Amino acid sequence: MTVGLAVVPHAALADKVTITDIAGRTVEVEKNPEKVVLGEGRMIYSIAVLDRENPFKRVVGWKDDLINYDPDAYQKYKARFPEVEKIENLGSPYAAEYSLETVISLDTDVVFLNLGNLLKAQESGILDKLDKAGIPVVFLDFRQRPTQHTVPSLQILGRIFDERDNADEFVDYYLKNMMTVFSRVEAIKDEDKPVVFIENAAGYNPDKCCSTYGSANLGRLVDLAGGLNWGTKKFPGLRGKVNPEVIFTDDPDVILGTGANWSKAQPGTMAVLFGYEADKDAVNQRLVALAGRKGWSELKAVKSGRFHSIYHQFYNSPYHFVALQTFAKWFYPEKFADLDPEATFVELHDKFLPIDYSGVFWGSLPATQ
């Protein structure tokens, strides 16, 4: 009874908006909420293009993944918005130690969760618990099916935050930049496309290899950029594990790795530390190290300079059109000679984000032949 008395009167006084979330659930949410909880801190990538003056003004609680797995972005935002340190670290919403009492005490208006964790949310009981507490839950998706769900996820956020104009403006920009690739690769025949292998979190754990993407997420972006994603034909779904010997046998035309500044989350990592504080010399050194692993130096992608790496966090943000453009330029340098993905990313920051562009977000190994 105490929970109901604490939450319902506040919610009853507010204007409401009814939305269908990415899980297909009909949810009634307070319009223009003052206090939101993020099931994943990296959702701030999306909120930033809507609440452009201060992406943290509504966020009262989150998981600390932005801090741990993209510290460059966290530090960049913290320098601009020092109050980010006051956001309550709630941990994983699906863990036993997740504190529903803290969520309630924060006077939370809505909780946002990732579609990829729908089953976990159901099995952990967090959905029922939040429902009983009178706190609505909205599922978004920028990871599982980013090219399918990014636009509706942004539109949902725009409606809830009463920032529909900002959402529409960014969606127009997103579609324009996606189409710069689609319009040029749609006529390319499969036999003329390169076979592309993606190594997820390449070198994150120096002793383990390899995880790759199926037809979803970055695998889908490879296909849309005019490549033939190696993992698409091997297994369904988002991701799977691969024995490196299979890669050596198939010898793909292009190899992509993903990296980010994981030096604190995984000390000793040999991943490429992309982000706002990265520099090109360090990126090149890490690329050389990854290409120099046992067996890799004999691959044609390494010898021909078609061995690349890119910022891992593109896989979970509405900025993935920058990765799409980068892939297309790597696959077809002549066809996309006029395309400048870095200029696109700089423009995105200038138009939509409260932080400026800096650092390095992708790189290529020079050919050894």
TrEMBL record:
Pfam families associated with the record: Peripla_BP_2
InterPro entries the record matches: ABC_Transporter_SBP, ABC_transptr_periplasmic_BD
Protein name (record): ABC transporter substrate-binding protein
Fe/B12 periplasmic-binding domain residues: 35-339
